[in-house]
Specification:
Elements lengths: L1 H9 L11 H49 L9 H17 L6 H88 L1
Keywords: Cell cycle, Cell division, Coiled coil, Cytoplasm, Cytoskeleton, Microtubule, Mitosis
InterPro entries: HAUS1 (IPR026243)
Main location: cytoplasm
Length: about 190
């Protein structure tokens, strides 16, 4: 199944090489199932869009017939300004995703979009506040890191100086120990 799916997916292009083992086949099988499920969802969505388009076209035809029969209006009898207004109305309805061009539908859609706009602005302000807080924390952390590096360097320098002093003391102690032994020997010889 996976091989057939890959061949179908890549069509005229050779299928890229992959290591055929149980794990890769399982992963590819899961991807295949997700892909096929997504394709089914897309097909359903396309069908729904086609149904809606047909419904809207039928409704448009219905209203055109009514306008022609009852008011004797057609696109040719309208002025350029009226046609531009109708086009604006249609584009607004499509943009706002309303079912019809009634004022109630427009007001509802605008209210919903305004509400979404306020939510988005609120969320953006919240995110900006979080960003400022994170920047402050990052700056503080970087400052702390710099200070810690400086402290580590100072400690290393002081440890090095202390090590040198300790080595000097050790050498002096060794020298004094040897000198003491030498003096003890000379005292015994002198006695």
């Amino acid at each position: 199944q996976v091989t057939l799916w890959l061949r179908k997916l890549y069509q005229n292009v050779p299928v890229p090489w992959y290591e055929v083992n149980e794990r890769t086949v399982d992963i590819l099988y899961e991807i295949m199932e997700c892909n096929e499920e997504r394709d089914r969802d897309v097909m359903l969505l396309i069908e729904d869009m086609k149904d809606r388009a047909a419904k809207y076209e039928a409704e448009a035809d219905y209203w055109q017939d009514i306008l022609r029969e009852s008011l004797d209006l057609s696109e040719l009898s309208l002025s350029q300004e009226a046609l531009a207004d109708f086009n604006d109305l249609v584009e607004s309805a499509l943009e706002l995703e309303v079912d019809d061009t009634s004022l109630t539908s427009f007001y509802s859609a605008i209210t919903c979009m305004t509400s979404e706009l306020h939510k988005t602005r609120s969320k953006n302000q919240e995110m900006e506040l979080q960003l400022k807080t994170l920047r402050k924390k990052l700056t503080a952390a970087l400052t702390m890191e710099k200070k810690l590096k400086e402290d580590v360097e100072k400690i290393k320098e002081s440890q090095e100086a202390e090590r040198i002093r300790a080595e000097t003391r050790s050498k002096n102690l060794t020298f004094l120990g040897l000198k003491t032994e030498d003096l003890k020997i000379k005292i015994k010889e002198a006695e």
